[in-house]
Every structure is written in C-alpha cells, then in structure tokens.
Amino acid sequence: MDENSIFQEPVTQPAESAETAAAPDGKKPMDTAALVLGIVAVAAAAFIPLVSYVCGVIGLVFAIKHRKEKRTTVALILCVVGIVGGVVSNVIVARKVMEAMAPILEGLE
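Above: the chain's sequence. Below: its structure in token form.
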C-alpha cells in the first residue's frame, strides 16, 4: 500500500494539557501563576486581607500541584507569607476595633 494513500489514518501526536504545556521560554504557566498570586497575596495582606486569603490559597494550590514537576519554593513561600500576613492584618484590625469599642462596652455595665 502506498504511504500517501488517502485511506491511511493520519498519525497524530498526543495533545498536551494546559498544565503540562511549556511556554516558548521553557517555563510552565503554573510557576508564573503561583508566583504572581503569591506576590499579590503579600501585597494585599496589609490592606485587603480577603484578597490575600484568596490569592494565597489559589497560589498555594498551584505551587503544590506544580511542585511535583519542578521546585516552586519561592512561590510556595510567598503564598504562605501572604496568608499569614492576612491573618496578622485581621488580628491587628480586630484589636483596634476592640480598643475603640472598650469605652462603649464599659458604659453598658
């Protein structure tokens, strides 16, 4: 049978998933996403703790998921620091609110 036969099934390469597809520079998108989300989590920790939690957790999932393939230590550390920063920020705000409410609560007694 001829190699150029129209009846021959074409040979296809297996498709790469979005997670395993490498960018042209060799880096994986999960690395970059985890790193960016970690940076956003750290930056938002002082001002918007909720954003810090969300970005930190999503970045942490990306970093842990990708850690099996390649070391993503910096992204992992940034995500954890962002989450911890959000917690610290919430504690500070809660303390300030309680201090501000102390005179009101004393007046109720």
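The chain has one domain: 29-108.
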